[in-house]
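Much of our argument rests on the idea that a fold can be written as discrete symbols. Part of our work consisted of pairing the sequence of a single chain with a tokenised description of its backbone. No coordinates are needed to read the tokens, only the vocabulary itself. The record that follows shows the chain in one-letter code together with its fold in token form.
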Amino acid sequence: MYSMFLKDQLIIFAGSYKHMNKISLITIAICTYNRAEYLRDTLVDLQVQSADPGEFEILVINNNSTDHTEEVCSDFSKRSSGLSFRWVRETRQGLSFARNRAVREAASDAVLFIDDDVHLPEMFIETALNYLRRYPEAKCAGGRIFVSFDSDETGWIPKELMPMFGLHDLGDQDRIYPPTNFPRGGNMLIKKSVFEAYGEFHTGLGRMGPDLLGSEEKEFFERIRKEGVVLHYWSDMALWHRIGSDRLKESYLKNQSKGIGRSERIKTIGSPGRRAIKLAGELVKLAGSVVLAAGYLTRGKARAAGFLLKFRIWVLKGFMAGQQVNVILPGFWQGWNIS
């Protein structure tokens, strides 16, 4: 037991510290689980950033990966001697545990979370630093996220469901987030003082290994908003989220959709009234999806129509958490195989 603890502590000190005599202005935090090759590409993008290497650190939180993530991090450490780079193992499974660990490990007050499968323009970090200098009072901010599919066959994805693949675009003007929106985890900056004042990410939410729960960001930002924290949208702090072909398989999409529903149910634990309101909202969304799907069908996009309905039904089933859910669709939809 002690040797395992010692090994984990040694991992913390892996990496290059040539710039540790300087105070990093921002920590780029990447939480990863079994995405070694995507992580490698993301680290390469970080290696060629235009920002002064002394102004940022790169922190990878390895959340019990069983692939060659350790090898990727070790190799990057050897090839990036001019960067401040560390990787740490978080043994408690879950994205929220990993993000909370990143906050505690970060050497900077400003922590910029990005996903392990993103493509970064060369000025990404420099842009974030410029925003921090321009808005020193900002405590939380989110940037634009575009989507880059590894597969060319994506015409069947309805635009209404692109956010589930990471799309987050409020336009090209900086602004304060509207009450119904918030930064997304693939590109969000939060200062450590926020966590110290209002708590960390909810560890019962967020992805846990292969279990695709979510809503940890939504719950966190809802909580701190109630305390008066302003959420900034910084349009020029943009990146691309990569989606592999494995994430377009129906089995993965079904698991992800049900995870969304289960996460929303978890947020209503202890509040039957809130759960009833949420269930009513899901039923309204399902009804709206039937209308939207009909529109896609009339335009000859049957696969997009089917995916819209499947998504909403899967979310509803996830929300009901194992209870029997029988959805009776109107008219011509009844012959469709949606399970």
